[in-house]
Design a protein that fits this description.
alpha/beta, seven-stranded mixed β-sheet, single chain, oxidoreductase, Rossmann fold, G-protein beta/gamma-subunit complex binding, GTP binding, about 40% helix, six-stranded mixed β-sheet, GI Alpha 1, domain 2-like, 28 helices, 477_t:CDS:1, GproteinA_insert
Length: about 850
């Protein structure tokens, strides 16, 4: 009989082997939750800028050491670009406007000096760059930059020379985003978005770098292909005879149809849309792409043309192309776009994970375990469904009578709502207004359905939300059409305010909702150690949401999503202003519930005049959410007291933006413009008071005047031109606003722009108001006493921080505010002293993130 004994060395080997196996298993586990994204595209497309944005959005940003490095890069950019301009002036035979500027040629024919840490840029370059940039010959050559591959962002730097050459200059985030550093080799960026880890690989886009691409082609989850849409008239850096856009089309064709990416989804970023928007006004698309037949200055048609050019290159029947128009230097825009991108990628990754589970299930024979695993995969199953979009919503719709005096109520047809497009005056439909009897019936249906819905699992509820999210992403254009047709908003406002925020809320609830509602165990005092306490969250029953009209899709689906997830039924009482779109939105959620196997009566839609809303509040529902005006909010609260029904009131606002003396106006101005004119100013958190430090006041007024003059008013669906500001949804607002403005002028304010209703040349009965600039406003004026909800910028002056705080806090409203400051600590110091529910620092609208509590104080309401 033999004995087998381990040798000491064998034991050591066995331990090492176990460690290796353990590491391999850990690596395999990581792979299952890891997403690999390839960032590809031709040179100068903006790929590196997107990577920088990922650092800002999902990591800690840039360190002081990195910013010091970028300080040298910025200097190299501005000197080498000027050298390129001067060289090109000679090539194009463009003379200097001022011949004395020729003295600076030797300076830029020499290599740029190294920048010493802690020292400012050499002063001789400030003098020469300032004078050269002001030279008419240099400006003329700069306009030809597309012919010699000049960097897109150089005007940004040349117009900021005084700041760049200051003693204390450190590159801002925008400086870093806009400076150019050629990508060589492979750059990997890692960021975590629970539950997935993202590895993004950027490979240099110039021809000399593309041979390295193939080293990254294995195990790719998605390809993010970046195209500079503004490059349609530009040459390549490495080949002045080649067109950037043609090069991008050739590359995309090769990548999209490569054997490496047969089943890999392609995300297409048509980048630099801001530059493209301005460029098409002066540079003909037809000159470079003769098959384009639309108007050269039509943003909608030109962008659609290039999007279709890329989409048609896809030869696969199973692969999808996900196009997005982007501006990689706009952090807020890219944050929203990347959220929808990551939603799509996570769905792809979850699908892969389910396939791995199926392989495991095949070798497991224990029936109970199979059931558990199937239930886990069931929660992520997407049920696809279809809901037809109304023909009236489609762009260019010509039907519908043009109403002489558009109004919701028609004396000849009482009990019905007249639905019309406020941007054109076209009649959409006539819909019966719901009554008290309808409210009773709706509540009964919802209560009956809730008795069954409350028994569903979180997995079943998530399945509904996944399916709804999938539908919204697939049908986002149609949803925006409907919203735009019913409210007169622009399609851009629809994408931001309807689609992106709703998708974000669904995504957040799917990921974090169950954890937020988990049972909590609480400890007790030493005397009661033998006692155990816990908190369980139970559904209320049937709740109601009375929602406003300014964002009809999001305002309706926000409370629906939350209510369904916690197990409640819900009555949606929408504003009569958007009765037409509610029919489509109702079909979406009810079809989704039916296709997922649930009773659609769990959600009830009601749309009627004020008596309908009062009946809903007094009906005996178990909770009330109201979004609307302060006056109606008070009535809701009074009616709710009959049954002591708990209320959340989100009422009006008179939000302030305070621009301190140390603020960066170049960065603040576009944010202020968006905060004021987004959705034609019809935002509860819209900026209605702009407070400017006296040292910046005149400069701000001058710059903002030029920006407001450029705004285009009209219908996104029916006008051929690109529209910046849409219609006023409610009728009769023009006269009210004009009277308020005239009263302010008589009280001492100065009207710079606008101030009256705008008459559309094609739709004279449409409801528009001119983008307005009213300056020199003071706290006692009538216009500051009420919410405007309109495209009106009110500008006020202050001398000290204390004065600004006093002006801001003098309003009875207290929803949100913004503070702009070059000193983050000072900005936060001021923010803490403002009487309101939410404050942004150097931003607008960030407080609307779905993972933050939202609400105000004072007459702006309460509840979070």
């Amino acid at each position: 009989m033999g004995n087998c004994v381990s040798h000491k060395a064998d034991n050591s080997y066995s331990v090492s082997n176990r460690q290796i196996n353990k590491l391999l298993k850990e690596d395999e586990k990581k792979l299952k939750t890891e997403v690999k994204i390839l960032l590809l595209g031709a040179g100068e497309s903006g790929k590196s800028t997107i990577l920088k944005q990922m650092r800002l959005i999902h990591a800690a940003g840039f360190t002081g050491t990195e910013r010091e490095t970028y300080r040298s890069i910025v200097f190299t950019n501005i000197t080498e670009s000027m050298s390129l301009i001067l060289e090109s002036m000679e090539y194009f035979k463009i003379p200097f406007g001022d011949s004395e500027n020729m003295q600076y040629l030797p300076l830029f024919n020499s290599p740029s000096p190294s920048i010493i840490k802690g020292h400012p840029y050499p002063i001789q370059y400030f003098d020469s760059l300032t004078k050269l940039w002001a030279d008419s010959g240099v400006q003329s050559c700069y306009e030809k930059g597309h012919q010699y591959a000049l960097h897109d962002n150089m005007s940004y730097f040349y117009e900021s020379l005084e700041r760049l050459f200051s003693q204390t200059y450190i590159p801002t985030d925008q400086d870093i985003l806009r400076c150019r550093l050629k990508t060589t080799g492979i750059v990997e960026t890692l960021f975590q978005l629970s539950p997935l880890t993202y590895r993004m690989f950027d490979v240099g886009g110039q021809r000399s770098e593309r041979k390295k691409w193939i080293h990254c082609f294995e195990d790719v989850t998605a390809v993010l292909f970046v195209v500079a849409i503004s490059g349609y008239d530009q040459c390549l850096v490495e080949d002045k005879d080649a067109n950037q856009m043609q090069e991008a089309l050739m590359l995309f064709n090769s990548i999209c149809n490569s054997q490496w990416f047969v089943k890999t989804s392609m995300i297409l970023f048509l980048n630099k849309i801001d530059i493209f928007r301005e460029k098409i006004k002066n540079s003909s698309v037809k000159k470079y792409f003769p098959d384009y037949t639309g108007p050269d200055e039509d943003l909608k048609q030109t962008t659609h043309y290039f999007k279709r050019r890329f989409q048609r290159l896809n030869r696969s029947n199973i692969k999808e192309i996900y196009p997005h128009f982007t501006n990689a230097t706009d952090t807020n825009l890219l944050r929203h776009i990347m959220r929808s991108v990551t939603d799509m990628i996570e769905n792809l990754s979850l699908s892969k994970f389910e396939l791995r589970l199926d392989q495991v299930i095949a070798i497991i024979v224990v029936v109970s375990l199979i059931i558990i695993i199937k239930s886990l995969s069931f929660r992520n199953e997407v049920v696809k469904f279809v809901v037809g979009v109304p023909i009236e919503a489609k762009p260019g719709w010509k039907g519908g009578k043009i109403l002489d005096k558009p109004c919701l109520k028609d004396a000849s047809n009482p009990g019905y709502i007249t639905c019309y497009d406020p941007a054109t005056g076209q009649l959409l439909d006539t819909i019966r207004a719901h009554t008290k009897d309808d409210v009773k019936e709706a509540l009964k249906k919802a209560r009956d359905a809730q008795q069954i819905w409350v028994k569903t699992t979180f997995s079943e509820r998530k399945r509904v939300l996944y399916s709804l999210l999938n539908f919204i992403i697939k049908n986002q254009e149609e949803i925006c059409w409907v919203s735009s047709r019913d409210t007169g908003k622009t399609l851009v406002d629809g994408k931001f305010g309807e689609i992106l925020v709703t998708c974000e809320k669904i995504r957040w609830i799917i990921k974090h909702g169950e954890k937020a509602l988990a049972t909590e165990y609480r400890g007790s005092s030493p005397v009661l150690l033998h006692k155990l306490a816990k908190i369980e969250y139970q559904p209320l029953g049937v709740v109601t949401a009375l929602v406003s009209w300014n964002y009809p899709f999001h305002n309706v689906f926000g409370p629906i999503i939350s209510s369904l997830f916690v197990g409640n039924g819900i009555l949606i009482k929408s504003s009569e202003q958007v009765a037409w779109s509610m029919q489509y939105y109702s079909r979406i959620i009810k079809t989704c519930l039916m296709e997922c196997g649930h009773d659609p009566d769990i959600v009830q839609f009601l749309c009627g005049f004020p008596e309908c809303g009062e009946a809903v509040v007094r009906s005996g529902v178990d909770g009330i959410t109201f979004i609307g005006s302060c006056e109606v909010g008070k009535q809701v609260m009074k009616a709710a007291s009959d049954n002591l029904t708990p209320c959340i009131l989100e009422l009006g606002g008179k939000d302030c933006a305070i621009i301190r003396h140390d603020a960066n106006l170049s960065q603040a101005l576009p944010i202020i413009m968006r905060g004021t004119f987004q959705n034609a100013g019809q935002n509860c958190v819209g900026l209605e008071r702009i407070l400017i430090h006296e040292s910046l006041y005149d400069e701000f007024v001058l710059k903002v005047t030029e920006q407001i003059k450029k705004l285009k008013v009209g219908s996104s669906l029916n006008d051929d031109d690109v529209v910046d500001v849409g219609a006023m949804t409610m009728s009769g607002q023009g006269e009210r606003l004009q009277n308020l403005i005239q009263a302010s002028v008589s009280e001492g304010a100065k009207l710079v722009l606008g101030g009256r209703p705008f008459t559309h040349p094609k739709y004279p009965t449409a409801q528009y108001f001119e983008p307005t600039l009213l300056i020199d406003v003071t706290s006692h004026m009538t216009i500051l006493k009420q919410e405007l909800f309109a495209p009106i910028m009110i500008v006020m002056k202050f001398s000290t921080d204390e004065e600004a705080i006093e002006i801001c806090n003098s309003s009875p409203f207290g929803l949100g505010n913004s503070v702009f400051s070059g000193d983050q600590n000072k900005g936060e110091w001021m923010a803490r002293r403002l009487r309101c529910g939410m404050v942004n620092v150097n931003d607008f609208g960030a407080t609307y993130l779905c993972n933050l509590p939202f609400g105000g104080v004072g007459i702006s309401g309460f509840g979070r």
